[in-house]
Amino acid sequence: QGADVNCLHGTLKPLHCACMVADADCVELLLQKGAEVNALDGYSRTALHYAAEKDEACVELLLEFGADPNAADGNRDTPLHWAAFKNHAECARALLDGGALVNARDYNADTPLSWAAMKGNLESVAVLLDFGAEARVRNLKGQSPASRLVALLLRGLGSEREDSCLELLCERLGRLCAGPGSLQGLARCAVRRSLGVRFLPDAVEQLPLPTSLKEYLLLLS
């Protein structure tokens, strides 16, 4: 009937809306009818930003039609940041297969790995590490992915999943027991093992140690 496939509804276009509800059939139809695949909404987000939170099929369709996997929104967040934050590991994998930069930085210099780690998103952390995510990277506040996760545990919000996520990050960092290169590293390994990861933040807080040593035990320095 001559409807405009790229008409605005507020700050959104039809393609954005279809991705927000993970309607892959509608996404495909809109793309076939000429929807602008990299059009921006009012937050400078593309349809791929919304698809990355929701549905692998939508992500793959958008990439097939030329969506930019590294499009940055108003906060310099990429679709991969949002897939990691929402723990949609298959969307993250599809984006990485499609050319997404695994170590992309947002306005705070946080990477997708940092976004995944601060939520304890084990599956997304594993995918990102498999694709070469840098575990030692720090944001503008000096926080690493591991320290973002430790902050979650310090608030008493951790579970076995977060424990596993932290162990995975620490294994990649090479900071735990896989052949630490110094007596200092061995001592930290022994203390962390004796206290246990789940109870580590509270236990370390009770130790009669200087703040600098507590931060060292918690991988914050």
UniProtKB/TrEMBL annotation:
<dbReference type="Pfam" id="PF12796">
    <property type="entry name" value="Ank_2"/>
</dbReference>
<feature type="domain" description="SOCS box">
    <location>
        <begin position="168"/>
        <end position="221"/>
    </location>
</feature>
<protein>
    <submittedName>
        <fullName>ASB8 protein</fullName>
    </submittedName>
</protein>
<keyword id="KW-0677">Repeat</keyword>
<dbReference type="InterPro" id="IPR002110">
    <property type="entry name" value="Ankyrin_rpt"/>
</dbReference>
<keyword id="KW-0040">ANK repeat</keyword>
<dbReference type="InterPro" id="IPR036770">
    <property type="entry name" value="Ankyrin_rpt-contain_sf"/>
</dbReference>
<dbReference type="Pfam" id="PF07525">
    <property type="entry name" value="SOCS_box"/>
</dbReference>
<feature type="repeat" description="ANK">
    <location>
        <begin position="108"/>
        <end position="140"/>
    </location>
</feature>
<dbReference type="Pfam" id="PF13637">
    <property type="entry name" value="Ank_4"/>
</dbReference>
<feature type="repeat" description="ANK">
    <location>
        <begin position="75"/>
        <end position="107"/>
    </location>
</feature>
<feature type="repeat" description="ANK">
    <location>
        <begin position="43"/>
        <end position="74"/>
    </location>
</feature>
<dbReference type="GO" id="GO:0035556">
    <property type="term" value="P:intracellular signal transduction"/>
</dbReference>
<comment type="pathway">
    <text>Protein modification; protein ubiquitination.</text>
</comment>
<feature type="repeat" description="ANK">
    <location>
        <begin position="10"/>
        <end position="42"/>
    </location>
</feature>
<dbReference type="GO" id="GO:0016567">
    <property type="term" value="P:protein ubiquitination"/>
</dbReference>
<dbReference type="InterPro" id="IPR001496">
    <property type="entry name" value="SOCS_box"/>
</dbReference>
<dbReference type="InterPro" id="IPR036036">
    <property type="entry name" value="SOCS_box-like_dom_sf"/>
</dbReference>
